[in-house]
Amino acid sequence: MITIKVPCSSANIGPGFDVIGLALSIWLELRVEVVKSESSEAPLNCVITYEGEGADEVPLSADSNLITRTALYVLRCHGQRAFPIETRVHIINPIPLGRGLGSSGAAVVAGVVLGNEVGKLGLSKARMLDYCLMIERHPDNVAAALYGGFVGTYLNDLSPEDTSRKEIPLSEVLPAPAGGVDTGEAPPEPPHDIGHYMKFPWAPEIKAIAIIPQFEVSTAKAREVLPTSYSRADLVFNLQRIALLPSALGRSPPDAEQIYLAMQDKVHQPYRKGLIPGLPEILHSVTPKSHPGLCGICLSGAGPTILALATDNFEGIANVILAMFAKTGIKCIWKLLEPAEEGTTVTYS
Ligand SMILES: Nc1ncnc2c1ncn2[C@@H]1O[C@H](COP(=O)(O)OP(=O)(O)OP(=O)(O)O)[C@@H](O)[C@H]1O
Ligand SMILES: N[C@@H](CCO)C(=O)O
User: Fold this and answer.
1) How confident is the model at residue 180 (pLDDT cuts 50, 70, 90)?
2) Which pairing describes strands 332-337 and 207-213: parallel, antiparallel, or unpaired?
3) Which of 102, 144, 163, 312 is a Cys-bridge partner for 293, taking CB atoms 3.0 to 4.6 Å apart?
4) Cα(224)–Cα(203) distance, rounded to whole angstroms?
5) What is the pLDDT of residue 61?
């Protein structure tokens, strides 16, 4: 059996829109067996079973499920049209979908690693990141999920030819679901070195409180509400803060006032307030002064989860935010998480 474990992640951490990612301690797990036989009745030779978050909505056919579609993309780029006979994938997913905790990033990373394992492709992590970036095109969640920890990420300036290959519509990258047109042609391989990451230190005292509302915000929708251009003042505001963020969160003992300041943002959070009732009030009123123990607070990824970084008083801080959401009629759960330093792991038993 092959076990693949991929952590969830929180992207942006305030000013680092599409740049900063933090892998956190909830893991998507795949248990994979390749049962050798002459033939398989399963479409594309793959049987999927699933438990956990999204069990009532996630498709279980290999050409529709994001994890197995991603694996098929990787396999087809290497001349393998289907899974080896017969591949059985059991998915255990505790990461809530569409909440800003990188469920799709984890699914994409898991799919690339699945393709690499069952196809015996021997891809490096850096090459796997290229495959991930052909599907989830911002690097913050996928790099954190793959490499683990607190990361800064960037996309390279590619040649015009590689840029157009990287920007090929997703419908031409991922295999067509049943009923779609499958031309039988190999999909476009990713260019090399699409993106990179750098790991930053994380102060061991700081933990992450995730307050998770019981409704979904799709990342696609949360990106549509963002402007296509920004004022110089707003851009400089974010640059001034993101320059401080990695050292502020790495310094031990943490300086709460400095972290709070370094987590302010004018690039994405203000525009997403219409999707998340109560967001501005929560971000402005929960501060290190009003709530000792708190270091900083932000929207997690594209939301609606709120990420409060703190060294103490975790339950007290969570309850205040739960109560603020409750005033707008929104129910939440909360979890105390820690950085997942190791990133994606593969074990064999
Ligand atoms: N384990 C999974 N198996 C299959 N599909 C999944 C899985 N996890 C997520 N997905 C797909 O990803 C979608 C959610 O992705 P989306 O980018 O909208 O939110 P998110 O990744 O949870 O949040 P964010 O990107 O803000 O952190 C789901 O609706 C589903 O289609
Ligand atoms: N940087 C991305 C993360 C969500 O996947 C965003 O905020 O849209």
Assistant:
1) low
2) antiparallel
3) 312
4) 34
5) 96
* pLDDT of amino acid 66: 97
Residue 209: what residue type?
Answer: I
* DSSP notation for 63-92: TTSHHHHHHHHHHHHTT--SPSTTEEEEEE
Residue 139 Cβ inside 6 Å of ligand 1? The answer reads no
Q: What is the mean pLDDT of residues 111-124?
A: 98
- CATH code of 201-337, in short, is 3.30.70.890
Quote the CA–CA distance of 198 and 47 in Å, as a whole number. Answer: 37
Which residues, 6+ apart, have CB-to-CB distance to 258 below 8 Å? 244, 248
What digits encode the pLDDT tens for the residues 149-159? 999 999 999 99
* Binding-site residues, ligand 2, Cβ < 6 A: 11-12, 17-18, 138, 140-141, 219, 222-223, 268, 301-302
Fold of 2-197+341-348: Ribosomal Protein S5; domain 2 (3.30.230)
How much is the pLDDT for 163?
94
